[in-house]
Amino acid sequence: MSGNEPVDDAREGAPEPAKDAGPAKDAAPPEGAAGGAGQAPDASELMVKAEQVHKSFGRLEVLKGIDLNVRPGEVMCVIGPSGSGKSTFLRCVNHLEKIDAGRLWVNGHLVGYREKGGRLYELRDREVSAQRREIGMVFQRFNLFPHMTALENVMEAPCGVKRQPKAQVRERALKLLDRVGLADKVHGYPAQLSGGQQQRVAIARALAMEPALMLFDEPTSALDPELVGDVLEVMKQLALDGMTMVVVTHEIGFAREVGDSLVFMDGGRVLEEGRPREVLANPRHPRTRDFLSKVL
Amino acid sequence: MTDLSKSGEPERARPEAIKAVPVRHPGRWVATVVLLVLAAMFVHMLVTNKAFDWSFIVDNAFRPNIVEGVRTTVLLTVFAMVIGILLGAVLAVMRLSPNPLVSGTSWLYTWFFRAAPRLVLAILFGNMAILYAKVEFGLPFDAQLADLLGVDIDGTLFSINTRTFLTGFMAGLLALALSEAAYMAEIVRAGIMSVDPGQSEAAAALGMSRLRIMRRVVLPQAMRVIIPPTGNETIAMLKDTSLVAFVPVTNELFFRLQAVGNRTFHPFPMLVAAVGWYVAITSVLLVGQYFIERHFARGAAGQGDARQRGRLRVRGIGFGGGGGGAS
Ligand SMILES: Nc1ncnc2c1ncn2[C@@H]1O[C@H](COP(=O)(O)OP(=O)(O)OP(=O)(O)O)[C@@H](O)[C@H]1O
Ligand SMILES: [Mg+2]
């Protein structure tokens, strides 16, 4: 479903740092430039477009040029060994980390910057926050606010950030909690909920902001095995409702069944990308084959 | 293997409850007796020793001017702590700012006011009127600029006479509050740092602003760490208010009690009365602390049942092991 250009793993050409002006080709593409030809769709038609994204922590280069396209409505699953940069990439998409080079668009907006006259300008905190409202994120460790009940957790951002009327938010929050199967736990504090229940509250909390894109960073890997199913079921329903999702996961079954595309990352690069069944059945890259033989 | 616990259970009879002879603790009995005897001796001494002069204490510890002293002391404590906590919170947030100028300013403040003894500060602020007769608010360096340009401008917006502003009470309050802010800054900073960074991250991912994250997510959780040492600070402050006698502030509790003692040539009973008053006020403060702590314990693991707590602990260990590469 996603960009079908063959992925070559040797990408030596380091692009220019993000601070400098890019060449004309990636500066504010005009509407309809790429058309429906299916080749290199431009950022305005994609939910996420990553172009040669680089990220280093000190001298450790964690992302070495990530190119990824996520179409609206697509569910992209990302797998790869520990330390390959999966979490870092998700955090870049949400601008929790600044990228060093390359370009990243979400929903047609350049993440963290404004491009004007061939130069990049950093966005103010307020503008970054506004961008993040379009993106929901679910963390491995849930990160619910422990001093608020499940309902308060879900209501906090819509009430406080979007300033929506409380009664309306409350009604929607109750519906969301019901949708994730927690209608009877709305007044429980996180410490009184099981891990699986906490993670479902966290999903409801992210959905309450009505995001266009949901990011999941190993949402089930901190859970007891018998609790994983409930969370995956909620995510599957979400996918069926048409939500655009990027899911870092080791749940190969979920990737096969729900994913539209599967990405294999290793050492800060995308080594393989394609339809989940195809990648899983006959991986082209030896590293993918190696990794899958260990996980499956 | 898993069948053992589940299906095997109903068939077997429940064993009878354990009735064992408890371990004897002869040491406890000896200690109890010794303590009781000591307590009895102490009470006996309190009642029979003429130096205490209980009727004199009761007659004098509630005079109107003493009660006024209590009022001043409590007001000083409350105001100094309120200013100290608010300023301390601001300093703590400044200290954690990525801007080196802002965090440096906070560090400098904390460094100075923790180094300067409160007693010295109190005397210094009491004598501030000698150093600065007037406090003026207006454009900085206006007189110098006017000289330089050869024009006549007055950048003063308003000015107050230091003597009318820095009354004894205000000088004492300022000394205590500014000093307290330095200690509170460190306490609040420790509280903020005790909150899992994942909390701010999750809040940021929801699009919350930095100020809002601090106010709604981080500080409420930091409170659980902040409150107990703040209780300590408040109690220490209650007793440190007696330092303002050197400003001098003469309507404060300890000064008043001593004055009565000196006037009547019965200083010792008035010292006992002072201890009594401070103990009483501290006890009231402790009750307040109990309720504040309970309020901020909302949702804490301890509030749930024991089973939940156990599960949480196990999960915590799981994170410790697996969280190495995760961010
Ligand atoms: N804030 C940071 N500072 C320094 N190094 C970091 C930071 N965050 C991540 N790293 C490093 O970047 C590398 C990639 O980390 P990342 O969390 O993206 O991996 P991952 O693919 O998500 O792995 P896992 O499957 O274990 O979650 C790791 O080597 C990690 O140590
Ligand atoms: Mg990770």
TrEMBL record, chain B:
Subcellular location: Cell membrane; Membrane
Principal cellular location given in the protein's record: membrane
Gene3D superfamilies for the chain: MetI-like (1.10.3720.10)
Stated family: Belongs to the binding-protein-dependent transport system permease family.
InterPro entries found in the cross-reference section: ArtM/GltK/GlnP/TcyL/YhdX-like, MetI-like, MetI-like_sf
Transmembrane segments: 29-47, 74-94, 115-133, 165-185, 271-292
PANTHER family cross-referenced by the UniProt entry: L-CYSTINE TRANSPORT SYSTEM PERMEASE PROTEIN TCYL, MEMBRANE COMPONENT OF AMINO ACID ABC TRANSPORTER
Stated name of the protein: Amino acid ABC transporter permease
Keywords: Amino-acid transport, Membrane, Transmembrane, Transmembrane helix, Transport
Membrane topology: Multi-pass membrane protein
Pfam families in the record: BPD_transp_1
Annotated ranges, domain ABC transmembrane type-1: 70-289
Species annotation: Actinomadura yumaensis
